[in-house]
Structures are given as C-alpha cells and as structure tokens.
Amino acid sequence: QSVLTQPPSASGTPGQRVTISCSGSSSNIGSNYVYWYQQLPGTAPKLLIYRNNQRPSGVPDRFSGSKSGTSASLAISGLRSEDEADYYCAAWDDSLSGPEVFGTGTKVTVL
Amino acid sequence: QLQLQESGPGLVKPSETLSLTCTVSGGSISSSSYYWAWIRQPPGKGLEWIGSIYYSGSTYYNPPLKSRVTISVDTSKNQFSLKLSSVTAADTAVYYCARQGRGEVLFDYWGQGTLVTVSS
Question: Which of B31, B33, B48, B71 is buried most deeply by CB count within 10 Å?
C-alpha cells in the first residue's frame, strides 16, 4: 500500500558502508522533504534524518541522507552492531494517497 | 524532557470501537509549532500514519482510514485521543502517539506504543 519503496533487507560487516534506497514519485519525494526513522527491535521509531539530510542532535554523523529527483538514500558508514534495526523513509505526499506516507521499511543486518 | 504515553484497552472485539489516549508530559500540547499524531504498526509489518491534530482541534486523516477515525484533543488535560470504529483483525497493531513538526513528516517524540488486539 505504501507509495515509497525500499529494499526489504540490506547487510554489511562492521565498519562497512551500507546504503538504503527509497523510491517514490513526483508527488512525494520529488516535491517534498524526505525523513528517515530507525526502529530498534521492540522499540518506538526514532527520527534519524529530517529535511533530506539534516541530523537531529545526538545522531552520529555516520548517518547521512541524500535526495535526487524522486529517490532518496540513507547511508550508514562505519557500520556498527547497534545499527541493526529497521529503517523507514517518509515523505509528505501531495496526491490523494495520503499526506504522510512511510516507506516499506528495510531491515539492516550486521553480519 | 517531553514524554508521551499511550493508554487504553489492549483487547477490542470485532465491530467495536478502539479508543486510545495519549498523555503528554514535560511540555504543552498547545504549542503552535506542533501537531500530534497517531501511527500504527501491525505485528511484523511497517508503519502507517493514521492522522494528526492541532491543539485548536484541526485534524487531517489518512484517506483509507478517514471514514472510521476520529482524533480529538483536550488541552486542559494535555491529552489527545484516537477512536477507530468498526474494527477488524486487520486493525490489530501497536499504536504509537507522536509529536509532529507542523507542516512536516517529522515525528520527533514518540510514545512507547501500545498493542491493541482485535479479537472476540
């Protein structure tokens, strides 16, 4: 049902760089900011990136966001075991599908 | 430090109305900079935004749920509430309340979430 598509899984070894994509359309990513959330097992989501590439205070600079056209990406550099979590992109959607939409989610596994 | 806490029944029968309340502490729900939102997550699945409310009572909802959802606010109690009618098993989920930046998909404070199961 989500209009923002993410790969279901991604993985890497400690220290590696992992990138998660979020594909949308002109009515969401193409014309609005992208946000990223991290959800550790059994906990509420946490804001990781806002307005495409801004980090809230306390979020390590290992996490970075970018946007190009109707797609966005979250990069995790220097992967750590505590980064193992689900990651969701989100954006405002100007179409009838709904103002706020979340991506399908990506499970990041640290090997 | 702002805190949000969901409360309400953990079990609701099919066709009945799910009712939850979110109590905000450590800050005022009447801030002009924020909306207050409900988001849910079915077991093992992704996040779904349900709807949001401003302290004035202005609301907007996710279109697929709009006909069944009512969100209200009580500024005197620093609370906002969710009602979801005619529930089915598909409404079984962890329900989160969250603070939302006005005009953004920015949810910066979240409650811990409460599991609501729809079952007879």
Answer: B71
